[in-house]
C-alpha cells in the first residue's frame, strides 16, 4: 500500500475550506495581492466556481472582492500561500465587488472567466 | 432578461464557503445532528468531496467530525439549515474523527461513501 504512505497533499490532495480562507495570495513576482475571502460552490454540483480574493478594507468592511476561477490558483508551499499569474494591472481591471455580493449568474461567470481568458462552462 | 431576476439561489445556485460553515444540520425528523465544520475540496479538481458535520466538543476541541458526501446535503430554507437523511443510529456507526484529520485517501473515501451506500469515484 505504498500509495497510502504519501502525505495527503500528494495523494488525493484535499484541502479544508476553512484553511483556504484568509490564506495569502501572491503573483509570480512574489507581490502579495490579498487573501482568500471565501469560495463559491455550486449547491447541486459541489463544484467550486470561484475563489474570492479580498484586498483592502478594514475589519471585513470596505474591501474589494475579486472572484477568480478556481483553476487559476496554485498552492506554493514555499510562500505558504496561493500563487496566481495575474499582474497588478490586470487585476485592477478585473471584475470586482464591494460589500454586496453580485448575482453569480451565467452572465457574470462569462464576464469573470472571460477576463482571464477562460471559458465558463 | 427574465432569467436574471430570480434570486441567485434559484438560478445558478452558488453558496459561499464561509456561509456553509457553522450552519446547522438536521435529519428529516427535525432533530439537530450538529453543524458544518468545513468542507473538503479537491485542490486540483475544485470538487467538494465532503461536508464535515461537527457534533459535541467545546470551543472547537473534543468534537466528533463526520465527513458526509456532499450530495447528501439539502438546504432547507424553512429550518435555515441543511437536512441529511441519516438516523442518529446510522450516524453513531459512521466514520468519524476527533481533533486530528484522517488521511483523506481513496481507502477512506470508499469507507465513508460506502457507509452511506454511495460509490466513491
From TrEMBL, chains A, B:
Coiled-coil annotated spans: none
InterPro entries listed in its UniProt record: PRC-brl_dom (IPR027275), PRC_barrel-like_sf (IPR011033)
Family annotation (Gene3D superfamilies): PRC-barrel domain
Short name of one Pfam family: PRC
Recorded superkingdom: Bacteria
PRC-barrel domain ranges (all copies): 15-90
Name of this chain's protein: PRC-barrel domain-containing protein
Gene source species: Sphingopyxis terrae subsp. ummariensis
Amino acid at each position: 500500500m505504498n500509495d497510502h504512505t504519501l502525505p495527503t497533499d500528494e495523494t488525493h490532495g484535499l484541502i479544508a475550506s476553512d484553511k483556504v480562507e484568509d490564506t495569502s495570495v501572491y503573483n509570480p513576482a512574489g507581490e502579495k495581492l490579498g487573501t482568500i475571502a471565501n469560495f463559491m460552490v455550486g449547491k447541486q454540483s459541489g463544484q467550486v466556481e470561484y475563489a474570492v480574493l479580498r484586498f483592502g478594507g478594514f475589519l471585513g468592511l470596505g474591501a474589494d472582492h475579486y472572484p477568480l476561477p478556481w483553476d487559476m490558483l496554485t498552492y506554493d508551499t514555499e510562500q505558504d500561500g496561493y500563487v496566481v499569474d495575474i499582474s497588478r494591472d490586470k487585476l485592477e481591471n478585473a471584475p470586482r465587488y464591494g460589500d454586496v455580493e453580485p448575482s453569480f449568474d451565467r452572465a457574470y461567470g462569462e464576464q469573470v472567466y472571460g477576463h482571464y481568458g477562460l471559458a465558463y462552462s
